[in-house]
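Predict structure. Chain length: 327.
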Amino acid sequence: MPTTHSMPVRRSRTSPVAAKRILVYVQNKPFLGALLVKVPFLVELAGANPGARIELLSPVPDAALLKSLGLVHACTSFGNNHLRTLAHALAHFKRYDLAICMRPASQITTLYAHLSGKRTMGFLVPGGLPFRDTVAYDKSVYIAISYLKLLFRRESDDALRARVVPAFSRVFGDTASPDAGTNAVCLFPGAGQPFKRWPAPGFAGLVAGLGPAYRYHVIVGPDERSLAETIRENASVPCELHVGEDLRRIFALARAARLCIGNDCGPGHIGLMAGVPNLKLFPPGQDPAQWFFPRAGNMLIEGGRGGIGSIPVDRVLSAARAMLEGR
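Prediction complete.
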């Protein structure tokens, strides 16, 4: 079973004096996974600046999820309307103690940050204005760790990696679901794009191969019920379906699991940060270094030229058995 984590509050090494009002500019990616990888950064940002009012400004309204999770006090979205964003920056000229730019490739957003904040922080953007605290964006590491480097530039990747699971536990709860059953295995067969989905027959064959010794939870988004039902109908072993579950419920199920198996998808990111072993399936050429959490006990299988569907069931089954048996 997963262990219980405490969440120490540590000040940022780049922020010796806590800010009272902070504005964070975030990316224009609406995907659930792209929002969830910001959770550890926002948890640590709040811990480094006790009592601060933290506000988000995002091109996508989906970023409001981070407010609903209690991570920020306000979230504003102007879409990709740069005139409105510029007007906001001018109207709030130097009103924020700290303006942070989490966008690693937007020159115009570096300007907004400089207009908004007395102090600035962000990634090095070619052609953009440099920040007071500037960090090089590293595409070779898990993206949640890249974000944490904005706050903890002197810490090693291993030290930053150790912050991720406790941060998620603080937001989503640290209790494993008591009704998940013993020997629980969570499956995440969905994805926002078809080329990221390992075929449903693969998951069905995996469940059939592992057999009835485990209790299977098939976790998908609200529009993926038919996918989950296809797996259940063809698995020849009972499966429990979870369609469009609350994120905290998904985290509790994953915390109770002996193994999480799935694609690069939003719910799968919750499983990836639950502190249990994960087996992730990726299509080729999709930056697994940025989107796979290389924590001890996790494993990645990447598809070949034939795409994610080229990953054979036997290979996934063999890896899953080894992970479940602790080999």
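Summary: Confidence is low (pLDDT under 50) at residues 1-16.
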